[in-house]
Amino acid sequence: MEEKLDPYAALRFKEFNFFLIIRFILVFGWSMQFIIVEWEVYSLTKDPLSLGLIGLVEVVPAISMALFAGHIVDQREKKMLFFQCIIAFLLVATGYYFITSPYVYENYENSQILIGIYILVFLGGFIRAFIGPTIFSLVALIVPKHVYPNAATWSSSTWQLAIVLGPAFAGFSIAWIGVHNSMGIVLATIVIGLFLISFIKKKPILNPKIGEPIFKSLKAGLNFVYKTKAILVALTLDMVAVLFGGAIALLPIYAQDILNVGSEGFGILRAAPAVGSVLMMIASAHIPLTKNAGKKLLYAIFCFGISIIVFGISDIFWLSVFALFMYGLTDGVSMIIRQTILQLKTPDEFRGRVASVNSIFVGSSNELGAFESGATAKLMGTVPAVVFGGVMTILTVGFTAIKFPNFRKLDLTNDMNENK
Questions:
Q1: Which of 108, 247, 275, 355 is the most exposed place for a label (fewest CB within 10 A)?
Q2: Average pLDDT, stretch 141-148?
Q3: Helix (H, G, I), strand (E, B), or coil: what is residue 2?
Q4: What is the pLDDT of residues 200-246, one digit of tens each?
Q5: Taking residues 167-183, what's their average pLDDT?
């Protein structure tokens, strides 16, 4: 007899609740900070290229340091490492708070302030390289293995909610209290997160190879990902979907030139994927995704590609909104299944390195996806570029289903019940 699904299983662990609150606060603050930085940089330069440089300056250290960060995470105690990441985040936020102060604007040139902001963005990229693998590794030490899928659902939902609310609040905050005071709010959120981490206990280090030479450790981590086809295929599918599904980057063009809906319509279009993603993540707490996970992931990304094509060719506003809603819904399914595969298929001693490889796949594809969308739109036009991305996503799903037939049969139910 099949055991009844408990949609709140992970929430029954006190430490996990504190973990969720901390994650929400940090992601809320980080995403809010990013919007404020974008606003301030454009205010200083009035140059769109300066906005593109923000992502580039952040992603370079995040990607280049990712594997080394994964090695360090696997060698260190996770609660203390998380604490140190928050301290580093606090220092960067303090830097932003200072550099946006009236004193700095009265005594320094705009070019000097801009350089200071880019330096802080660069340092933030280093923190990003460590915080992702740390969070991924820590959550596996807070809840038992059979609760991983439910924990992945709540953790991803919390992240998505913070990603939606942080930028929205930043926009209002800038208008109400200005850039400097808005950075003060970011600073306050991090201080709260720093206080709450005291409610999480110190965790054991489960890596049996403490002190292993770094390059040997990195090689072992990469070999593990390559040999574990479930992880490799899941990461590759997600990377390709994000790379070719970067329709979001072209939303301003659709809002202004194709759908002609102005700034209000742009806001609705921008919110639609997030609404779909959050609703799917909440629903998935009640609907198990572990059974036939491989097929569900393939179907989700296939529908993701279809939604991109529908959005690309639509000139009806509400049809475009619905397509973007489905874009977010299917992306939510993909995110939860991928995180569950990573949690269940990764041994404790490899969690940091696997999470780092994941951050390289996902992090690089986000930035490259925006670039790909912009480049193809320049070459072949906006609508053909979006449709091209959707078609490539669908073709990748078809290729994966044929090339890796065992992935179609992937079922995580047994993995979830091990060591129950």
A1: 108
A2: 88
A3: coil
A4: 999 888 777 777 788 788 888 889 988 888 888 888 888 887 777 76
A5: 85
**DSSP state string for 47-111:** -HHHHHHHHHHHHHHHHHTHHHHHHHHHHS-HHHHHHHHHHHHHHHHHHHHHHTSHHHHHHS-HH
Q: Domain range for residue 146?
A: 1-205
Given 205, 235, 253, the domain boundary residue is 205
Q: Residue 1: pLDDT above 50? A: no
The domain spanning residue 312 has which CATH number? 1.20.1250.20
150 and 281, same structural domain?
no
- Cβ–Cβ under 8 Å, residues 15 and 201: yes
User: Is residue 328 located within the same domain as residue 187?
Assistant: no
Does residue 193 contact residue 61 with C-beta atoms inside 8 Å? no
Using pLDDT thresholds of 50, 70 and 90, give the confidence band for residue 366: low
Over 367-413, what HEC string results? HHHHHHHHHHHHHHCHHHHHHHHHHHHHHHHHHHHHHCHHHHCCCCH
Q: What pLDDT is stored for residue 240 in this prediction?
A: 80
Of 150, 180, 205, the residue at which a domain comes to its end is 205
